[in-house]
Task: inverse folding
């Protein structure tokens, strides 16, 4: 007996909007708002050849008392080629082929829609509305009904979340050439302290054994360095995560995709340490020192130094952070003599073994044992009691 096939032509998967909201409702609200800005910047950076590039990104985020926040993000670019992209999760995208744009998951606006009470997206001659888990699409006769793309959403936000979202939107670093406005205020590009080129891994769509997959590719990229009260890691101008825990003093804006989680807030520690190390190395070679004596023992010091292979940069950085210093050795007398001579001792565990070898092999520094190995401390002489002669006071008999 042949079984009846039901719904044969339907997609293999379906998405439950309630479940999606439960998953992404815990994501900080500001990330949902910034995702829309990321989409505009990617379009401006030109991942689609020949598409109309937006000249502006205008964001309005307001909140009236205890009511939900109102978000509006508008650009004047080419708009969605295919309106089904608005609501199709994880669809293949040309962004995955281009390391110089941030997009890859094709999920940002979908996450925003999932956590919104209601949302409207206008693009070209389409208007797509979302409310109470229902989507409605209207196709307008005029092919130029709407220039660019406008996204409006009603978002549940408490006061603290709203204030953080406005702050983070204002902390975005826009690409050169696009006008970026938040609540009527033009957000300028901050002046960078320096910029370098380093080789870092970036996820790019690659064909492996006939299957397309996102894999990390080593690629040279520009990294901008910004002075900041609170240092952040940026991906193409979009805040990813704070660098406070590393104790590195500068924000870093990487001009290519960063290997990160779908939540866009988790980056492997070894990536961050490598980035700091290579940025310090390249900057030092340019004569720009990003470190000083205050960075002794900082959380980034040991791991980031392991990535610095250029001898000149290694010498500059070590001698800037730890001037007039020698490496600790098991020769305690040599350690003491070095300190007596005004030298600082670089303690065990400050560097890994490979870094120590590069430092000593290239005569950048040496251990106290090498510098004072022949030193013999002067031994204190024992106290000698004077020879006291005792005698009897009556007869004068000597007792010793």
Result:
């Amino acid at each position: 007996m042949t079984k009846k096939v039901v719904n044969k032509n339907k997609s293999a998967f379906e998405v439950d909007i309630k479940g999606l909201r439960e998953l992404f409702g815990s994501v900080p609200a500001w990330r949902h708002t910034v995702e829309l800005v990321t989409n505009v910047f990617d379009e401006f950076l030109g991942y689609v050849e020949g598409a109309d590039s937006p000249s502006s990104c205008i964001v309005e985020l307001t909140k009236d008392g205890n009511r939900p926040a109102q978000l509006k993000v508008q650009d004047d670019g080419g708009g969605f080629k295919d309106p089904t992209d608005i609501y199709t999760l994880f669809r293949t995208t040309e962004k995955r082929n281009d390391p110089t744009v941030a997009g890859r998951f094709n999920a940002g606006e979908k996450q925003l829609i999932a956590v919104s009470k209601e949302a409207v997206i206008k693009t070209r001659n389409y208007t797509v509305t979302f409310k109470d888990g229902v989507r409605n699409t209207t196709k307008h006769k005029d092919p130029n009904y709407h220039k660019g793309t406008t996204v409006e959403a009603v978002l549940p936000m408490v006061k603290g979340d709203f204030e953080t979202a406005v702050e983070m939107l204002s902390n975005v670093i826009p690409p050169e050439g696009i006008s970026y406005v938040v609540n009527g205020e033009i957000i300028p590009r901050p002046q960078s302290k320096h910029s370098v080129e380093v080789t870092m891994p970036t996820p790019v769509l690659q064909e492996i054994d006939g299957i397309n997959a996102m894999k990390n590719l080593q690629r040279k990229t520009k990294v901008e360095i910004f002075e900041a009260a609170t240092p952040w890691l940026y991906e193409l101008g979009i805040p990813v995560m704070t660098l406070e825990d590393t104790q590195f003093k500068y924000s870093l804006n990487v001009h290519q995709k960063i290997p990160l989680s779908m939540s866009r807030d988790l980056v492997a520690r070894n990536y961050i340490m490598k980035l700091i190390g290579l940025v310090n190395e390249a900057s030092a070679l340019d004569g720009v020192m990003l470190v000083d004596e205050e960075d002794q023992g900082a959380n980034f010091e040991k791991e980031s130094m392991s990535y610095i292979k250029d001898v000149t940069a290694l010498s500059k950085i070590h001698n800037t952070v730890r001037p007039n210093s020698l490496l600790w050795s098991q020769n305690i007398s040599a350690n003491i003599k070095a300190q007596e001579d005004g030298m600082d001792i670089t303690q065990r565990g400050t560097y890994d073994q490979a870094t120590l070898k590069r430092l000593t092999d290239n005569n950048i520094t040496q251990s106290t044992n090498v510098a004072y190995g022949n030193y013999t401390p002067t031994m204190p002489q024992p106290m000698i009691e004077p020879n006291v002669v005792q005698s009897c006071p009556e007869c004068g008999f000597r007792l010793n």
About this structure: The mean pLDDT is 88.
